[in-house]
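Complex 278.
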Amino acid sequence: MSTPQTPPRALTIAGSDSGGGAGLEADLRTFTACRVHGCVAVTAVTVQNSVGVTAVHEIPADVVAAQIEAVVTDIGVGAAKTGMLASTEIIRVVAAACDRVGIGRTRAVPFVVDPVAASMHGDPLLHDDALEAIRTELFPRATVVTPNLDEVRLLVGLEVPDRTAQYGAAQALHALGPQYVLVKGGHLRADTDRVVDLLYDGTTFTELSGPRFDTPHTHGGGDTLASAITSALARGASVPDAVAFGKRYVELAVQHAYPLGAGVGPVSPFWRIRPDPV
Ligand code: PXL
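Predicted structure with PXL bound:
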């Protein structure tokens, strides 16, 4: 038997969803399905099921930073992402830790910033005063940011009812400093049977168009997209190739989403995990 090789590694800096649909659980599942070893810096524990979030326990900021340092200095990662960060203090400490270990757009390790503000039930996952830290501490360090249209409104105050506004939002977000902006179009109801995500690098706009699937079960979809992009970056893909891969991955995950509990079910990794176990 040949000696097993170390696979590509990726880090998620994110909160836990006890229901297993979103958060770091979705991230790790996606990394595994993409054949990447997943590492975690846990930022918060949510008490959550398919119906909603009933409590949040934040992890002390110095423990979040220590997890990042422990992972990157020993295991090493090819890419990192953020999900739920909860507070200004955690965001500041994450930014400083990323600088120390070489995560960020001007550093060795590409950095995907998913500016998670609320769950799809509307439960807050970020203190209101922490939006400013996302803008000033994380966006300038990001290789790619992946806001949905609710997050666009919170971050730059723009409504996006149509494609023209989606282009304007990409420019406004790019001015905050990330290398690439991906303005997700899943919430753009003007597109009834397509989802058009828009990638912008400050010069070139690229529309990524794919099918829209009619399912209520899209819990963890944003986390899954950002994690699939991060996986491809960890494998050495360029940002445009990683984003195209991530979109394909999440389309199939949404197509195979399943019901769970009494509420909203998650997007699925199972289409990719073959053969089925006995
Ligand atoms: O999908 C965004 C998200 C991220 N992180 C955690 C979550 C959610 C949505 O519910 O619970 C922990």
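The longest helix spans residues 239-255.
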